[in-house]
Amino acid sequence: MKKSLLIVAVLAVLFGAGSVWANTDWYGEFWGDSSKGEWKGTLYDDIRPPHFDGKWSDGHDAGKCYAELEYAGHGIYKITKGTLYNSKGYEIGKFDGYFNLNIKPGKAEGEWKTLWGEYGKWQGKRVLL
Hints:
Elements: H1 2-18, E1 24-32, E2 36-44, E3 51-57, E4 62-73, E5 76-86, E6 91-100, E7 107-114, E8 119-126
Antiparallel strand pairs: 1-2, 1-8, 2-3, 3-4, 4-5, 5-6, 6-7, 7-8
């Protein structure tokens, strides 16, 4: 009986932790000086180092966004190095902020800045299936 309870307790802990330690999809918007648009991507936290890999589009231009993340505890991932790329793969800016998996359905927000000085904010949420 004790062995069965121990197995159930271990499985509960593993499945409970698994809700934080799983790849998650995100979607949101960005806005700034003279542009606004949408972004989407996946937060990969089941490998080290954790990172975010996504795409952005403002209706005229599009590109990719990539961020190295650091786990800050309580389901929060801080962006330690966020880079924006254009459609040709050239770096065009930086972004920072955080992803919070603890808030349902998930909350993400931060700021961005292009290499030529345009800046703005972004926010989004976790996509639940």
